Amino acid sequence: MCPKKAIRKKRKTSPAAQESRKEQTTSRVKWDELDSREQMSVVCNLFINGMKFSEIANTINQTYHTNLKRESTYPILMNAVQRKWIRFVPPPEYELEMRLRRQYAWLDDVRVAHSAQFQDIAGFGAEALIELLKKFYHQNKDVVHIGFAGGHAIRKLTYLFSQMLPQFEGKLPSRLVLHALVAGFDIHEPRTDPNTFFSFFQSSSMHGFDIEFVGLHAPSRVKTEEFRNILESEDICDSSRAAKKVDIIVTSGTCWGDEHSSFRKYMQKSETCFKILDRQNCVGDMLWLPLGNEQPLPLETEIRAMTLFELNDLPNFIRRGKKVLLVLSPCFYCNQTKSSILKAVLNQKEHLITHLVADSRTVRNVLI
Q1: pLDDT score for 368
Q2: DSSP strand E in the chain: where?
Q3: Euclidean distance between CA atoms 178 and 129, whole angstroms
Q4: Which H, E and C letters describe 240-303, residue by residue?
Q5: Using CA atoms, how far apart are residues 93 and 301, in angstroms rounded to an integer?
Q6: How much of the chain exceeds pLDDT 90, in percent?
């Protein structure tokens, strides 16, 4: 009887690795001939296709004729993460989107991210802004003016927008004018001032676009009775006059009940103002101005935000064919949803927005 032949146990590989190896062809390029960013692109693509680190190293070794250790792929991938070249993109929540569209058919566009994370909604907002610009491009509009409110959500959106923009060269209006529509509030967090967002666009990678800026150098809080005079002052009137050209307003909102709300914080500086807004049943703010359940609240407080648009201006702004993109993500600090402010915005007597981006928890609470 012949002795039994030893059976070698075959090592399993993931479907992604098997598929990748089928597609791989023998490369004459050696691993060391690639620069660091080229190596990063190889590792990242293999990683997002589902390979384990050992499989990534094996695939690179076979393709580029090298002897890379599994551990050597870790710092390459982490470098890509630190450069923000890898970003999780959550799936859309189509069911909630369709329910919103049916219930609020007047909205031009609705996007709901199936996520509970602040940064994910900002990514959806940046994509919505790109789509808006595409529509202006197809209308043969060469110059588009975009006005930005402040805050963490709009800062993150603007950053991601600046990263996406170069990919659409030749598909969007080539001249963009970016406006700051509000003054910064928080002296301890100056990054939420829209004037600071413009630094994202100071890059040679923007060579396909002619980008101009209109800042707003003004105090964040002013006395309500002095607001009109300040708006007409020499330092601000140019910004105010330029704001009349804005085609798209990009804004967010916060709930009055959220203790982290910048709007709530600055109104707390005056006990009288805070009580007035409480008595008016303030729901929250948009463009750092107070909003009620059915309409913007009259400005009866002693102080107010320095803004270039009033909430009461928005219905007529929209009737002139302009667009207002509202992006609502969970609170940057505590992850609280923005359901109360969203419900108020959707149920205004006159429409204040045309486009909406929100997270699934916020929308789900509104539709219950």
Answers
A1: 79
A2: 109-113, 143-148, 175-180, 210-214, 221-223, 248-251, 253-255, 284-286, 289-291, 303-305, 323-328, 355-359
A3: 13
A4: HHHHCCCCEEEECEEECCCCCCHHHHHHCCCHHHHHHHHHCCCCEEECCEEECCCCECCCCCCE
A5: 40
A6: 75
Residue 17: pLDDT band (50, 70, 90) is low
Closest alpha carbon to 216 in 229, 200, 230, 206: 230
Pair 216, 195: CB distance under 8 Å: yes
How many angstroms separate the CA atoms of 225 and 130, rounded? 39
Q: What pLDDT is attached to residue 26?
A: 53
Nearest CA to 149 among 326, 352, 295? 326
In whole angstroms, give the CA distance from residue 44 to residue 20. 13
Q: Write down the CATH number for the domain with range 94-367.
A: 3.40.50.1360
Per-residue H/E/C for 179-220: EECECCCCCCCHHHCHHHHHHHHCCHHHCCCEEEEECCCCCC
Binned at pLDDT 50, 70 and 90, residue 12 comes out as low
Residues 6+ apart with CB under 8 A from 215: 180, 195, 198, 239
pLDDT at position 7: 45
Confirm if 331 and 254 have CB atoms less than 8 A apart.
Answer: yes
pLDDT at 170 over 80: yes
Q: What is the DSSP letter of 97?
A: H
Give the pLDDT score at 13.
Answer: 58
What was the pLDDT predicted at 15?
A: 59
| Secondary structure class of 147 (helix, strand, coil) | strand
Q: Enumerate residues 6+ apart whose C-beta is below 8 A from 63.
A: 24, 26, 27
Quote the CA–CA distance of 364 and 358 in Å, as a whole number: 10
List pLDDT tens digits, range 172-205.
999 999 999 998 767 777 888 999 999 999 765 6
Q: What is the CA radius of gyration of the chain?
A: 25
Q: What is the C-alpha end-to-end distance of the chain, expressed in Å?
A: 75
Q: What's the chain's average pLDDT?
A: 90
Sheet holding 210-214, edge to edge: 109-113, 355-359, 323-328, 248-251, 143-148, 175-180, 210-214
Q: What is the mean pLDDT of residues 198-217?
A: 86
